[in-house]
Amino acid sequence: MSKYITTVSWSRDGQSFTDNQYKRSHQWEFDSGQTIQASASPDIVPTPLSDSMAIDPEEAFVAALSSCHMLWFLSIAAETGFVVEQYVDKATGILSKDKDGEQAITKVTLFPHVTYKKASAPSSEEHRNIHKHADEKCFISNSVKTKVEIEPSMSKKSV
Question: Which of 4, 46, 47, 54 could anchor a disulfide with 39, C-beta 3.0 to 4.6 Å?
Fold first, then answer.
C-alpha cells in the first residue's frame, strides 16, 4: 500500500467572504516539497476572483490521467523493447452534466503522439495494444467514473 499526501491551503486575508466575492487562489503543496499556485477555473469563477495563470482542479485532473497513462505506456514500451524518443499528449477534458444531471468531467480524451527510434518501432497494432494495456494499468483511470478515450498516433525517427 502507498500513501499520498498533499496540503491544500487558502486564506481569506481580510477579503469579504459571505457575499461570495473572495479570491479562489490557493496553494497545493506536495510531499516532494513543490508548491503550485492553484485557483478555480476562470471558466467557472470569473477573474479577478480566479487566477487564470494558476492550475485549476479540472486541468489537474486531466493532467493526472494523461501522466498516469504516459508513465504506464513508457514502462510497457520499454519492457517490450520499443525505444521511445518522445511522447507528447495534448489531452482534453469535457466538463458537462453527467447522467444524474451533476456537473462532472464526463470525458477525457488523450491524444498521445509517440515518436519511436525507427529501428525499434512497433507496428501500428502493437502501438495501439501498448496504449490499451497502459489504460488498463493506470491507477488514476481505474479510480474514476469519467470516460477516458485514447486517440494515439505515432512516428518513427531515424537515429
Answer: 54
